[in-house]
From TrEMBL:
Organism field: Theobroma cacao
An example Gene Ontology biological process: GPI anchor biosynthetic process
Pfam families linked: PIG-L
Keyword Signal in record: yes
Keyword annotations of the record: Signal
Name of the protein described by the UniProt record: N-acetylglucosaminylphosphatidylinositol deacetylase
Amino acid sequence: MGWILIIVSILVVWVASLCKIFLAPSSHSKPTFLDDGPAFRKRNVLLVVAHPDDESMFFSPTISYLTSRGHNLYLLCLSVGNADGIGSIRKDELYRACAVHKVQLQQVKVFDHPDLQDGFGHVWNHDLLAKIIEEEAYSHGIDVLITFDSYGVSGHCNHGDVHYGVRKFLHDSSPRNIEAWELVSINILRKYSGPLDIWLSNLDSMRHPRGVMHCLLNEHLRKSFLAMAQHSSQWVWFRKLFVSFSSYTYVNTLRKMK
């Protein structure tokens, strides 16, 4: 009997969490991320990731938030994900996913640099990363950068290297008017709690001073699953489970980089 009550309670909270997402536009206070007040200002945002599918697997709520509010989103992917020798396929899949996300394809750039190859054994040079990010930021008039935090959600070393590349750019050559935000990594129990983590992410962001952390709900879940399905070479059964149960499908917590 006790187990039945536990299961029913989890299902009730799960359903309540999904309702919180689907009713988000009408039932919640106005999100404040990149909100400049009554006068809307379109921002040039650069999302920096390591591999094709990072954008859909981890950053879908952020992409949905930015595109639905009219911000100008650029995507910089620093490798083609060639660990299994299918880099050209994964690059094409990334463009298809971006089309689903409503990201302009001319604003998507994928690098295939010999020193930036996908793999846990490949350490990426932070100076090289900073130089590439600098070129992209200046050429597009970027005023907001978004990337992984130092752990990189999954602990992949390439994700962490991207974080440190962005940090090096900010430290060495970034103009002061560029904001930078990192996707907060969470523990494994929260990571695989699906929409249940919405409540904990909200509480976590509320504990910090205003403007330091923002909790972004995914208001377009169907689009996120469709975008991830474009990465057909990666869309195997265990990744389908990952996307379904991953809290990053439902909510992103962004923290301001210092």
